[in-house]
TrEMBL record:
Gene3D superfamilies: 1.10.340.70, 3.30.70.270, HIV Type 1 Reverse Transcriptase, subunit A, domain 1 (3.10.10.10), Ribonuclease H-like superfamily/Ribonuclease H (3.30.420.10). Keywords: RNA-binding. This is Integrase catalytic domain-containing protein. It comes from Austropuccinia psidii MF-1. Residues 1-218 form the Reverse transcriptase domain. PANTHER family: PROTEIN CBG26694, PROTEIN NYNRIN-LIKE. GO terms for molecular function: RNA binding. It holds the Pfam family Integrase_H2C2. The lineage of its organism: Eukaryota, Fungi, Dikarya, Basidiomycota, Pucciniomycotina.
């Protein structure tokens, strides 16, 4: 049960704790009672003592209880891995049960006799001397596993036949009929008498259809949480620190099977943790990395890193107040729909073309009517100036369609020159330029240029001279 490798660590040899007069009186009463029950015995003067465990008095509702400080012994104890049943899985076996009997062993741990090696490691020291445990005390690391193994050894056939449930020192007998329940209960009680096990009558409940056991209210039809435990949680104040929040989440997570939409409700608690670690005055709306460092020191939940990242990236205050490090965004202006032909014209250049025609044209100016989507192509030269372009448009285009109200184009040097801007200022024409690296602004002209290049490529691919098709296309 208690196995610590020698030599024993010096930390296991400790003096007694100081106690007030009231606590000393309570200690003496408890020690006297345990000696009479055969649980404790006083260590002789000549006996070698290698381990001493101090004890304290814990008070609950005016009642005292002796508690040994065995934390150091538990640290150096080799753990016993014998499994303890899961409460929820155990209680689900009571479905369809109409008669339930619950019994509790009287000071169950004290009913187990210790081995000689275990006795050497379980000596307590108080103001009135050193005492040795003869039976298993409470608080020892391996005590629950050891006791569970012992109980399973006592009732192997009953467990395999499904006659009862054993959870450490709790025994639950259940059945669907009254006769079978009496038969099972008689069989279990005979086994209890046979092994000389003592049962606490105050904690026994015989043949109930519904009762409280293992912190739950169980019956053949339902399984719920004890209302007294829930009431204790409701009386607690709102968690103010991360540690209090962790404690509350731990208990509420245990009760999640009895609460509808628990995940949705607990989401608000997660938001409280995120607010504390990012939005509070002490957190200061720091970066995503700093918030991750703060959260991981106090909390954990599934996909917590994604939740922290999303919370930091979508916070309104951070987005509004943080300094922008990139290029400032321009004001988005939507292109208005034209109400009449030639009101809005899209304009762009086609360059890097092979020379063709009598005048060796190597470029083309494409104009698209935004209303009717009618395209017109004007052949020209790549090195034409802004003056040449203005004369060409006035001579071949404006003379037929009239002045434009708006011209949409890219920021070609010809379209941004002083001559071009001053000329259209006199005409009353508005010049609208596309943003850099965003040809979608003048998308109508871009699409028409692609179609123009495809058409020229088709006519040239059959060995035809370009002049053979000149004048027969829309361009």
């Amino acid at each position: 049960m208690l196995n610590v490798e020698k030599p024993y660590p010096p930390l296991l040899i400790r003096p007694s704790y100081p106690a007030r007069p009231r606590a000393r009186e309570a200690l003496e009463v408890h020690i006297k009672e345990l000696i009479e029950l055969g649980v404790l015995t006083k260590v002789g003067n000549n006996e070698q003592v290698e381990v001493t465990t101090p004890v304290i008095i814990a008070w609950n509702n005016g009642k005292s209880r002796m508690v040994g400080d065995v934390r150091s012994e538990n640290t150096y104890t080799i753990p016993d891995r014998y499994p303890i049943p899961r409460i929820h899985e155990t209680l689900t076996q009571l479905s369809q049960a109409k008669f339930i009997t619950a019994m509790d062993a009287l000071k169950g741990f004290h009913q187990n006799v210790l081995t000689e090696n275990a006795k050497k490691l379980l000596k307590i020291i108080v103001h009135c001397g050193i005492f040795e445990y003869l039976r298993m005390p409470f608080g020892v690391k391996n005590a629950p596993s050891y006791y569970q193994r012992m109980m399973n050894t006592i009732f192997p056939e009953e467990l395999s036949e499904g006659l009862l449930i054993i959870y450490i020192d709790d025994i639950i007998v259940y059945s669907e009929t009254w006769d079978s329940h009496l038969a099972r209960l008689e069989r279990v009680l005979k086994k209890i008498v046979q092994v000389n096990m003592k049962i606490s009558l105050k904690k026994c409940h015989f043949a109930y259809s519904e009762l409280k056991s293992l912190g739950h209210v169980v019956s053949g039809l339902s399984l719920g949480i004890d209302k007294n435990k829930v009431a204790a949680v409701l009386l607690k104040p709102m968690p103010q620190t991360n540690k209090e929040m962790q404690s509350f989440l731990g208990f509420s997570g245990y009760c999640r099977q009895h609460r509808k939409d628990f995940a949705r409700i607990s989401k608000t608690l997660i938001n409280t943790i995120l607010h504390e670690c990012h939005d509070s005055v002490s957190a200061g709306h720091l970066s995503e990395y700093r918030t991750l460092e703060r959260v991981k020191t106090c909390s954990w939940w599934p996909n917590w890193k994604k939740d922290v990242a999303y919370y930091c990236q979508t916070g309104d205050r951070c987005q509004q107040a943080n300094r922008a490090t990139g290029q400032e965004f321009g004001m988005m202006i939507q292109i208005q729909e034209p109400k009449s032909p030639w009101e809005i014209v899209h304009m762009d250049w086609v360059t890097e073309s092979p020379p063709g025609g009598d005048r060796s044209y190597n470029a083309c100016l494409v104009l698209i009517d935004g209303y009717s989507k009618t395209p017109i192509s004007l052949p020209c030269h790549k090195d034409d100036t802004a003056m040449d372009t203005a004369i060409m448009i006035c001579d071949k285009y404006i003379s037929h369609t009239g002045l434009f109200q708006n011209i949409i184009s890219d920021k070609d040097p010809k379209f941004t020159s002083a001559l071009w801007t001053n000329l259209h200022s006199l005409f009353g024409t508005k010049l609208s330029f596309s943003t850099a690296y965003h040809p979608q602004t003048d998308g109508l002209a871009e699409i028409r240029i692609q179609k123009l290049e495809d058409t020229i490529r088709i006519f040239c691919s059959y060995g035809l001279e370009f002049k053979d098709s000149d004048g027969f296309t829309h361009y």
